[in-house]
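re the bet — no i am not wrong, look at it urself. input seq straight from the record:
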Amino acid sequence: MDDYHIPVLLNESVNLLNIRPSGIYVDVTYGAGGHSRPILTQLSAEGHLYAFDQDEDAWHNRIEDARFTLIPANFRYFRNYLRLEGVTGVDGILADLGVSSHQLDVPERGFAFRFDSRLDMRMNAGMEVTAADILNSYDEQQLTRIFSDFGEVRNSKTLAAAIARKRSVHAYRTTGDLNDTIEQCVIGHRGKYFAQVYQAIRIEVNDEMGALQDLLRDGLKMLKKGGRFVVISYHSIEDRLVKNFFKTGNFEGKMIQDHFGNIERPFRIINKNVIEASEPEQKRNPRARSAKLRAVEKI
C-alpha cells in the first residue's frame, strides 16, 4: 500500500469522522485503503464501511473483511449504489480528492508531464474521452475556458491558440506533443505552469467538478442527523466548492434565510479554520503541501 499512495492528513481526517463503532461509513476515494483501514479498526461487528473507487487498479488493494464492501464506481453515483445495498442513511463520509500517487507514477496513464506517454488522463479506463480527444476536438474558446477555470492559467487564450495551430498540422497523441506546446507558452514558474495545464485537462476529462457537486449534494441527503462529512481538497477550485456548500448548502456560497430571517444552514462547521498538513508531514509527503481539510456535521 505504501508504494501505491501515502494517505494525507490521515489521523486528522479519521478523527474528525467521530466514528461510532456500530455506524455506517463511506470512504468515497478508496485508493489503497489508506483511510479505510484505520476506520475499520474503530468499527464493531455491527458497523460497516462502504468504499468507492472508479480506478480498477484499486481493486487489487481491497480489504477482505465482512464489515467492508468495495464498489468499483465513481463516487458521484455512491447514493444509488448504497440504495442497492439497502442503505438509506450513513453516519460519516470521507473524501480525499485528487489524483493518487500511484496514478501519477504510472507513465501510461498520462497524468504526469515528466513522462512521455499516451495522452490519456482517464481515472476510469472505461471512459471514452481521453486528454488527446479534448485537445484535438475542443475549439479555442472551450480550451480557454478549461485552462482558465480549472487551471487558473493566466495566458489561457495564448495557450489555446497555440494548441489549435499545432493540431492543424499534427494531432495530439502523447504528453511529449503537449509538452512541446506548453513550453512555448510558459509564464512564471515552469513547473507550476505545467502542473496547472495538466490539472485543467485532467479535471475536464474526468468531469471532476461535476462529480464533486453530485457527491456533496447526495452526501447531504445520505447523512443522518449528526453525521460527519470530511473532505480533503488539493486546489482552490474544488476547495471553494466544498467551503461554500458546507457553509450554505449551495455552491455559490449564498446565504438563504427563512421567513423569520434566520439563516438556513445544513451543517455545523467542525473546524472553523481549514486544517493543513504539518511541516513534518509535508516533508515526508510533498503532495500534502496543498491539502486542505474541512469537516462538518449535519444539523
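see?? Residues 190-206 form the longest helix (17 residues). told u. also Residues 10-101+208-298 form a domain with the Rossmann fold fold (CATH 3.40.50.150). so pay up
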